[in-house]
Amino acid sequence: MQRRAGTEGKVVDKIADKVTEVIEGAYRIHVHDSPTTVDAAAWNALLATQPAPTPFMRHEYLAALHDSGSAVPETGWAPQFITLEADGLLQGACALYLKSHSYGEYVFDWAWADAYRRHGLRYYPKLLGALPFTPVPGTRLLAKGAAQRALLVRAIAQLADAGRLSSAHLLYLDETDRAAFETAASAGWMLREGVQFHWTRDDADPAPDFTALLARMQREKRKKIQQERRRVADAGVHFTVHEGAQIDTALWDFFYRCYTLTYAAHHSTPYLSRDFFARMQSGMPQHWLMFVARRGPGPDDEAVAASLIGIDRERGTAWGRYWGAVEHIPCLHFEACYYQPLAWCIANGFARFEGGAQGEHKMARGLLPVRTVSAHRLRDERFASAVADFLAAEGAGMVDYVSELSERNPFKDR
Question: Which residues contact 385 (CB under 8 A, 6 or more apart)?
């Protein structure tokens, strides 16, 4: 659900007045209040050299979120992008936002915000390094090397302190970013672990197709999936698959209708505008795959549901993103969001399919637990100490939780 920004715009002005441009050694640090003021080609070139780039960190994606009105100050996402330059060349960058709420993040800090409120202190706005509405792990600190990455970490803390913000948060980091924030622990950065569910190809013995993958699962799990798929087939539903430019405007329109119906079913408001998806169609179509559920024997029969998958063919990774249906058909969600994408990934030689945030039910569909990590820094030392204690206890519980999940592995021992 989108939230409006309140007085956030005034805070942006105050920070910009102080740190729009900083000189540190040979480096010039700029703070941008719009991704469109950052050179797109330089940003994408730097992203391509990172350990874990994703399409969702591309300049086109971030600019589309802004230009479509989806992630802007009015919805509680005020850009404060940092760029680090030397000799006129981009050496580092980070997508940051001032947030007036915690919606659309998927690493939950509501309890921290409530503790601030109960003590008469202001938690929002906070500084957030994340992909709006996109819980996809990957590189957040775009940097030429370790020195530039460390400088970005310091710049983020300085930006938060200059605005007297309660906190700074970087979500869904890769391992290189994690190491940078671990090194900066003495500056108040703390790490927090979470869990997502991903399918990863067995490179030593890859399954040749989805049927072969099912054969490797425990009998009760395999039987349940077969039953779910049969219910969809018995309802007369089949799928057409559309990639890139094959997703025409009519399909995008139908998908968006389905997308909004998913939010309506939960009495909520969509995060993303139709204009955002129009920009995806024109600006980065190669990174999208759509499954359309149709009722009837032919490709032009009635469309009843759609799921949208992000893809990176170069790196063999796919991401489950959005889905919706115009009517309820039992088990259609599992077919559209897990079984069809998994079968497609196997057939196309992909190595990983990420199922999105949360969801233990994904394990029964062949997606296994994978740890995620975020970094957090609270300016108030009292709250920082309390959160550190909380994270230590939560981290110990996370170890037990992942161990418990491993015992419920849906695949047979091999």
Answer: none
CATH of domain 8-194+374-406: 3.40.630.30
- Is residue 4 over pLDDT 90? no
CA distance 414 to 409: 12
Count the Cβ atoms, other than its own, within 10 Å of residue 144. 16
Superfamily the domain 202-350 falls into: Gcn5-related N-acetyltransferase (GNAT) (3.40.630.30)
Q: Residue 211: beta bridge partners?
A: none
So what's the pLDDT on residue 22? 60
Q: Write out the chain in H/E/C secondary structure.
A: CCCCCCCHHHHHHHHHHHHCEEEECCEEEEEECCHHHCCHHHHHHHHHCCCCCCHHHCHHHHHHHHHCCCCCHHHCEEECEEEEEECCEEEEEECCEEECCCCCCCCCCHHHHHHHHHCCCCCCCEEEECCCCCCCCCCCCEECCHHHHHHHHHHHHHHHHHCCCCEEEECCCCHHHHHHHHHCHHHCCEEEEEEEEEEECCCCCCCCCHHHHHHCECHHHHHHHHHHHHHHHHCCEEEEEEEHHHCCHHHHHHHHHHHHHHHHHCCCCCCCCHHHHHHHHHHCHHHEEEEEEEECCCCCCEEEEEEEEEEECCCCEEEEEEEEECCCCCCHHHHHHHHHHHHHHHHCCCCEEEEEECCHHHHHHCCEEEEEEEEEEECCHHHHHHHHHHHHHHHHHHHHHHHHHHCCCCECCC
* Mean predicted lDDT score pLDDT of the chain: 93
407: left (phi over 0), alpha (psi -120 to 50) or beta: alpha
Return the structure tokens found at 52.
């874990």
**Amino acid found at 1:** M
pLDDT of residue 357: 83
Res 28 pLDDT > 60: yes
Contact 46, 77 (CB under 8 A): no
Question: What's residue 10's pLDDT?
Answer: 45
Q: Where in the chain is the domain with CATH 3.40.630.30?
A: 8-194+374-406, 202-350
